[in-house]
Specification:
- The structure is a homotetramer.
- The first copy, chain A, is mostly helical.
- Chain A folds into two domains: about 20-60, Arc Repressor Mutant, subunit A, CATH 1.10.10.60; about 75-210, Tetracycline Repressor, domain 2 (Orthogonal Bundle).
- Chain A is about 70% helix and about 0% strand.
- The first copy, chain A, is built from ten helices and no strands.
- Chain A has helices spanning about 20-40, 40-50, 55-60, 65-80, 90-105, 110-120, 125-155, 160-175, 180, 190-210.
- Chains A and B meet through α1, α6, α7, α8 and α9 of A and α1, α6, α7, α8 and α9 of B.
- Chain B binds a DNA duplex through α3.
- Chains A, B, C, D: One of its GO terms (molecular function) is DNA-binding transcription factor activity.
- Chains A, B, C, D: Keywords: DNA-binding, Transcription, Transcription regulation.
- Chains A, B, C, D: This is TetR/AcrR family transcriptional regulator.
- Chains A, B, C, D: It comes from Rhodopseudomonas palustris.
Chain lengths: ~220, ~220, ~220, ~220
DNA sequence: CATGAATGAGGATTCATTCAT
DNA sequence: CATGAATGAATCCTCATTCAT
């Protein structure tokens, strides 16, 4: 669409990745995550970013575009915060560390804001929901899935459907923690509480997927 | 039109549960769940309900009140609270039935809309989030907790923390189903897919909490 | 216009002076005087009068009519509160008593409300302003004028223009009292303060209009 | 249109005294004084001012603020505060000139509208009434009081309470003029009528407060 | 490019008035 | 006659967007 304005290499400035642009997105992120898409006003964003309202429209076509880009970058930033599965440790320790890191990322104000904001807009703007899922959730989950597959190959775990197993573990870690938090019943859970829940999740997970005398997950 | 609904007491007004009030809530539900709290306008709601804008304010103090009532009625209507644990069956069957019902309520467009909408507004209006959590989530989960406690007393299950166990089971049932759905990656999961995931969840749950030769949840 | 609906003497009820009508006007007075014409709502008036909103329109064509009638009756009521000049006393005492009564009627919340309310609407509804002036102000002033004329005839006072003199005395009595009060700078002035100001006014008035060695009002 | 007003500093914005701001106040004055605070709508004001509704809110926080500023500028503009007491003349001439100027400012349509409008709103919004009294009435009266005090020091007048005396004089000048006018009984009084009333007021005032053989204000 | 003043459509809410019961 | 539910026009105010400088 906007492609190939070709002959003007000079002053392309706002096309991709100028400092101003990053500055705007940074301000927008703060405001969008705090107030949601509808609650955020372009004026507030301009103030937060330290630019004029007009400048917003130099870099972004409209509020929607700015929101999309903001969420994208937030996604990337969150995706970055990925757990390092490569460090060799026993499975139980790895699961516990991953689970705790995962919950800590999920149940803090910033993570919650992003999820809330995207989830809210997903009905009206499905592509945004999809992009966020792919970049953040599928991404971080995917790396966990790979880890599980590696363990299966190594014979450390016995798993039929690693995607399902990965989902089960992360969900187990959320038990009693995520919903009360996201619905504003409590502040972020304490590290101790997280450790307890993750321990229990790990036990259940290993009870189900660790090769033992009898594999109770495949009954009969 | 609405004349002579026979047994209706005269002039019960807009106090609690008139036909008009239900009509308004019905219209509001459609609009709120489609567009979210901010996206929905009172004008749109009035049109959807087939009443004038002014009438909205005869029955509800403001947009907030209408939203709260709508969301609560939606939850009740959805049967999230309605699963019948009292019918005597073996634990495994009950868990599977409950899990399937739970996921079906959660992962259909109506359920997703309600959750999305409330979650979205919870940041700016925590009371709404809290109220929803208490009345809908805690309530439905509470009945499951009671069921588990009964089983523990009966010796059918061995559970240390029934709240945690209840959260674990419902979360397990969501694995691979809820997030892709809520972020608009897929349509509602098929009954077969739900059954598979719930089966796996039930197996893990029972492996952890069913009294057996060795109780694997209490390791070492 | 509405005259001669002739043949229906029965149930004419609201035509002139039923109890309901008085009840409505009473409620309306309270609300109009407290909130002004625009600030008063028909709903509030209905509540204050203890009738339904619909009933208001049985007795009065619209808000304007109700307001007019309310002000009329208030005028009458205030006009009633007329000072009794007939009791024979010396002029000085009479002036002081009248002055004090006048200021007390003017500088209390009810009097101020009426004046404010009528004054405010006089621009948009001049007839109301005129009617109020005639019934309340001219009325009470007129009786004072007559008193002065009597004194002139009796030789007690020497006044060229009794209308002017009457206005001068009542205005003198207001000095430093009325404006701060009507602009909400102070509560009603104390009887002592009123007495002081009225005393001074009386002195100035008599100095100007009492026959003495030289009549200073007619100089040169 | 408004371009190049030459010496205007760039970007002075809407902070204090821009042309747009004056334009808005001008339109607001017309509408407020004609219709009163409640009767005036922001839409009407925008139209009268030749700007958009939104622009109103760029320069003023809300209807209240716009009203306050309008009323204050109106008072100032009207020259109520502007009478020059410093020009040396004899007391009698000064009083007559001041009295006439005062009544002319008070009893013309603009002055009446301002007073009516503020008085009307003073009941519901006392701060507005108070602010108007302080800035306009007390201010203009205060300069008269100072003048009187100067005369007392000079021995030209003998006055115990100069505040009271100032109020008395201005009130005397209003006799038979202000009330009929403000209640829409008559148009603005003619200069001749004003002169007559002010002459009489001046005579009464000087009879009471000019040092003479006998000071008639301190009777018997 | 950057600005911020200006816009006008749209939102929530109120209220005088009507009308079926 | 009395009611009060229903109406819809009108109000104040917000905000995404544009444009002259």
């Amino acid at each position: 669409m906007v492609a190939h304005q070709a002959a003007t290499p000079l002053h392309q400035g706002h096309d991709e990745d100028s400092a101003k642009r990053r500055q705007i997105v940074k301000g927008a992120r703060a405001v969008f995550l705090e107030l949601g898409f509808d609650g955020a006003s372009m004026g507030e964003i301009a103030r937060a970013a330290g630019v004029s309202k007009g400048t917003l429209y130099v870099y972004f076509a409209d509020k929607n575009s700015l929101f999309c880009e903001t969420i994208e970058q937030e996604s990337v930033a969150q995706g970055m915060l990925a757990f390092d599965f490569t460090v060799a440790r026993d499975v139980e320790t790895t699961l516990k560390a991953f689970g705790a890191a995962y919950i800590q990322a999920l149940c803090n104000p910033r993570g919650a804001s992003a999820i809330r904001t995207v989830m809210a807009i997903a009905e009206r703007m499905p592509e945004i929901g999809q992009r966020y899922y792919e970049r953040v959730i599928a991404n971080s989950l995917g790396r966990f899935v790979s880890y599980l597959e590696l363990q299966v190959q190594a014979g450390t775990l016995v798993i039929d459907d690693c995607n399902l197993a990965a989902g089960q573990f992360t969900k187990l870690c959320q038990a009693t923690l995520f919903l009360p938090f996201i619905f504003q019943m409590t502040d972020s859970p304490s590290p101790e509480r997280i450790a307890d829940v993750v321990d229990s999740a790990t036990r259940m997970f290993l009870a189900a997927y660790r090769p033992s005398a009898t594999t109770p997950v495949m009954p009969d």
